[in-house]
Amino acid sequence: MTSRTHARTRTALAAALLSGAVGAALALVSAGQTWSESTAKFAQGEVPVSAEGGDVTGLPSALALVGLAALVAVFAVRRTGRRVVAGLLTLCGAAVLASALVGAKDTDALAAEAAKTSGLADSGLGAAVTVTAWPYVSAAGGALLLVAGLLALRYGSGWPSMSGSARYERTPLRQRAARAERVDPDRPEDLWKALDRGEDPTHGTA
Questions:
Q1: Rounded Cα gap, residues 57 and 87, in angstroms
Q2: Which of 41, 60, 106, 195 is found 20 to 30 A from 157 (Cα to Cα)?
Q3: How many domains is the chain built from?
Q4: Residue span of the signal peptide, if any (predicted)?
């Protein structure tokens, strides 16, 4: 791997982690915010009603959690498994994006809230239904998850894995332990260190 390719891979890794984490956070935060507002009409007049993202659709927040788990799992698997997990992350991002945009046009939760507020099953909504920016914030979170998945599909093969890093970290430890066991009889400090460890410094020397 050339230095330019290595730098591009590291940049893609950082971008995927950032976009995935931010995207999941946006989708999760948006679920608890007001997505639409209107009024409930009944005999005495009208009362303001609103619907939160979680009332409209639970898909963006649920899929964001799955996507976040997939982002972490990318580093726990290798080769084909990594591509499968990266594909799952990509699908989650696309699904969060689509479900949030569909939810922005859905008035069923708002109508249900109007009926609950007025106490009338057939209570209608006011003429105006206002959609806030939150469903589009959730959609933006889905887009960021989608970007993270695409980056993982394109550059993930060059990213480190948890199992691989642990294996490489153990090798120097074994090498240092092996070096520590060798005692040079001509070096007094080695003899003293061996005695401190409870070893016989003359063992194995001619």
A1: 23
A2: 60
A3: 2
A4: 1-27
